[in-house]
Amino acid sequence: MSDNQKGARSPRQKSPRSPQNRGFSVVEEKYDEVLNKVDAKASGTTITYEALFYVVHLIIFYLWLLPLIGSSVREKCEGFWECRRFMKQTWLGYSVDLADTQWRELRSSMTLLWATMIVISVSHYRLRGLWSKDAEGGATASAWFRLIVGLGFLFVQHGRQSIVVLIICYIGYRIAKWQREAKTSSGLVSWLYALAVLLFKESYRLKHLPRFRFLRPIFDHSNGGMYGWQLPANFLVLRIISFSLDLHWAGQFYDAKDQSDASANCSSSSSHVDDVLRTPANSPKDKKDKEYNDIDDKVEVEDEDDDDNDDDDDAAEALAKLGNSSSRKKGVDVGVPKPTCPMSFMTGPISPLSVDSRTRTFSNSTASSQASATTASAEKHCHLDDYNLINYLSYMLYAPLYVAGPIISFNAFVENTKNPQETENPLTYGLRWLLCLGLMEFLTSQFPYFAVISSGLFPHLSPSELAVVAYMTLKIMWLKFLIVWRFFRLWAMADGTLAPENMQRCMSNNCSLEQFWRGWHSSFNKWIVRYMYKPLGGRDSRLASVWPIFLFVAIWHDIEMKLFVWGLLNAVFYVIEILAKKYTKSERMRSLPSSIFHTICTLSGATYIIVLVGVNLIGYAVGVGGVTVILNKILTWDGLVVLFVCYYFLCLAVAFMGFLQRLGLSTQPSTIISELLPSPSIKKSSRKNA
Domain range spanning residue 574? Predict the structure, then answer.
């Protein structure tokens, strides 16, 4: 019995008794029943006390400590003009913090956005009956409608600069088509073009220089529109790559399928008669064929963001090996061409998600969840006729997702164009969104931390005030992005498109960098997994692939030094976390006493929460200089006291996560701490003595 299991006791198992021992068995069963009742009562009492302990600390932290320090920060902000000027009074009489540009623009445009969403969604709903659902490929009336709306939306957004966007889109389309016609082995040219677009959009910083005056007409705001084309250009890049690689993989799939059919015809013409004459019914060959087909029917492609599952990255390769080995060992004819046939089965590698129609065909109506539905749509290859200019432009300029996402693959977009989503109710989702909006209004009125950071008041705060501002700024920023992305997802949902949910997990329910990035901007994470992580080797090479991935993510956000530092730190701590998770599963760590083992894990989880806060403050809020100010404040006596208090509450937070998981009240993410905390799935050893 391991140390992690000591002290645990499971109900005594009944064992068969001989007639001579039945009397003793009855006594023993009564004895065990009493002991089990005592155990259940003791366990329930322990859980009650533990839950009460956590609730008391949550009340102290969220209802006393945060408001106390937050009110002090608010008073300093109201007494500092540079900070106070960002506070704007609403028509209801309360003031809100509008220092954040994204939140200010979204909040001021809310009425117009809602009106636009309702008009376009209702108009599209009325039009849906016009397109033919029987068409196997090509653009539908829905695609034409979305393209027309997208062109109008594009002109309103960028004015005459819309021409720049259309040129970028068309060049990306021609490159993807050229790669398909040339049957190149990868989408390398599309990747190079996408990186060039990212660099080109950043050249607006040089337009004021005399040598770069030729850039001014491209980025000049006098060309009309609401803002420059370069702001949403990073999403254009993702869509270009998605279309190119989806077309590339679909082409490989259909090429392999055509050659397989030709090979099967070639081989069957010479062997079909012999097989019929020589192979009796219910022969071993038939049984082996059925056995292979049964195995093949059970092969499924798992969700593409679940990269922690074993070998899910290489489903196609595994299935191909299964087929080849089965045919060699068992002599089963699985459609692989015989040596006498001049045609080969495959001319090149196929995508990890395109082995057979059985491994890629999913239905939105039978999906168990929204995540599986969107993943299924992404994995299902479209007909080659669907990769046309009309579908491409309607995808690139799709109004609900054009400005900020969520990100959706081309395959999923076309699937939703032909089969509008019916898995989620926009009305229910809209009510949830309104609740989040109300919470944001409350937080920005009580905690003006965007204004504190933007005004320069941040370095003048005390260590305890710095800690609270750093913590709450990321919480409010998380809520801001949740509201932005959920609104545009709501719009797409009302329009018939099921986009991924971007914010899947609250920041307060994370003590792992890996799980944090799965839950924050989740659609971008899914895009990274599908188009970068798996092509770079998947799980087997993640310690190497994490570096180019975070470099691309930093460049994709913006070309700034703070983002390069942010990407580098994310990669470093990601590698440390992966290595630490492997080490904690070693026999040396498992042999430690249970109390020491879980103390180490709890401290590690608390440390990584601080890492998450610090790294994201560098990338999204105060930058490298602001974090340096925090460190200088922490390295004082008062700062060390604050750091100790922070560690105390963070350790309690990590323990509380494990407590909720043990009770089955929270999903169990794969983190340093949650993998190792006791859970209901751990089998307890039975009592040694009766």
Answer: 506-676
